[in-house]
Design goal:
This protein is an alpha/beta fold and about 290 residues long. The protein has helices spanning about 25-40, 55-65, 90-100, 120-130, 145-155, 175-180, 205-210, 215-225, 240-245, 255-260, 275-280, and strands at about 5-10, 15, 20, 45, 75-80, 105-110, 135-140, 160-165, 185-190, 230. The mean pLDDT is about 95. Bound molecules: NADP nicotinamide-adenine-dinucleotide phosphate.
Length: about 290
């Protein structure tokens, strides 16, 4: 089985460099494909209350543990809260609700999913969840540098990660450099460009793939991990699932890493200042789909 390397976060805990993301997966798809992923050797799972599949994730995880495939300690399970959960008076109850839907005693990582609403005052509730042993690490997603600094201004626990759009066309070196002093680990969403095939046709990626005897998708994932970025590519295809895990065995040369880092960047992306409509409408997380 492929050994999954880990990165060390600023709280001393480790995080597996590659996992399985379940964004836009129905509960039935999670029941089928997440178990395939665990059986293949995936140990890191990325879900969210706004993915409406926490119940199914919990069922699969508990079944895999009961079947002796894996122990809870060997798994790294992340969920995220949408902004409706941030107000301090609400946040603790919503963390409990996520744990209840998952049927777990603790999360390895919990993130504020989107930088809107009362994230500054809500951060204290996240810290209390760590103190109560309900969550081991806490972090952010889609926060730009200024908004990360707003959290740092009130934090007694520094965010351990920031999960943002990262792939070879969005290498996000700018925010990562600006916040280098925080020790925040970056997780990359859309690591394979969300299915944009033209990303996999970039000449620097194709050349490295041919030299390494790997697929372009494997080269992209290997580059991201070499950059210190955690990835959780999503796939419903068992062949891709195995291929993505095996990307950890692909060794890129320094020249190949530099060539992929030099790929022309798409217009710089960060989420807009005003909350988009979809952020305001996902509000009844008890309704699993
Ligand atoms: N925090 C956030 O706001 C946020 C936002 C978006 C996503 N995420 C996280 O990031 C994860 C990944 O995002 P994503 O699924 O949208 O994008 P992605 O992983 O970049 O792309 C998924 C697409 O890549 C294809 N693919 C996967 N493996 C492949 C391979 N080896 N070769 C060729 N194609 C391959 C999949 O098709 P097949 O099914 O055919 O393999 C699918 O179309 C999510 O599941 C979620 O955990 C977080």
């Amino acid at each position: 089985m492929t050994t999954i390397p880990s990165f060390t976060m600023n709280n001393g805990r480790t995080i597996p460099a590659l996992g399985y993301g379940v964004f836009q997966m129905t509960s039935d798809e999670v029941r089928t494909h997440l178990r395939q992923a665990i059986d293949l050797g995936y140990r890191h799972i990325d879900t969210a209350n706004a993915y409406f599949n926490e119940v199914a994730v919990g069922e699969v995880v508990r079944e895999a543990i009961a079947d002796g495939v894996v122990t809870r300690e060997e798994l790294f399970i992340t969920s995220k809260l949408f902004p409706q959960s941030y107000p301090y008076a609400q946040c603790g109850a919503d963390i409990d609700a996520t744990l209840e839907r998952l049927g777990l005693d603790y999360l390895d990582l919990l993130l504020f999913h989107q930088p809107y609403g009362e994230y500054v005052s809500g951060w204290r509730a996240m810290e209390e969840a760590v103190e109560a042993g309900k969550v081991r690490s806490i972090g952010l997603s889609n926060f730009n540098a200024a908004k990360v600094r707003q959290i740092l201004d009130v934090a007694t626990i520094t965010p351990a990660v920031n999960q943002i759009l990262i792939n070879p066309r969005q290498n996000q070196h700018e925010i990562r450099t600006k916040l280098a002093d925080t020790g925040i680990v970056y997780e990359g969403w859309y690591p394979l460009g969300h299915g944009d095939k033209t990303l996999l046709e970039e000449p620097a990626i194709v050349a490295a793939a041919e030299r390494a005897g790997a697929s372009p998708a494997q080269v992209v994932l290997a580059w991201e991990v070499a950059e210190g970025v955690v990835v959780f590519p999503k796939t419903l295809n068992p062949t891709h699932m195995a291929e993505n895990l095996a990307a950890l065995n692909v060794a890129l040369t320094d020249e190949e890493i530099a060539a992929i880092s030099a790929i022309e960047q798409a217009p710089y992306y960060e989420v807009p200042d005003e909350a988009p409509a979809f952020v305001l409408t996902h509000n009844d997380y008890s309704q699993q789909r």
